[in-house]
Amino acid sequence: MLIKSSTALRTDYANISKLAHERAEPVYITKNGEGDLVVMSLEAFEMREEMYRLKSRLYVAEQQRTEGAKTRSLDDAEKMLRSIINE
Description:
- With 87 residues, this protein is of the alpha+beta class.
- The chain has helices spanning 6-11, 13-23, 42-66, 74-86, and strands at 2-5, 27-31, 34-39.
- A 3-stranded mixed beta sheet has the order 1-2-3.
């Protein structure tokens, strides 16, 4: 976990930006010793957002499955995908 002060953000933005890009993880910014902000590279943010969307879709699919929604076997799904690819 990377933790930097708000003063460091103001005075050494380039280094904090470099850390965020190199490590691809959030940099926690404190203000008066307390957590205040999180800074991260755009690439890391977009990856997290995509992962969140995927997890949300999987959660909905699992809810539907447990509520009795129609499902396909792995073999049927593979056949369907192969037919789509071969068209």
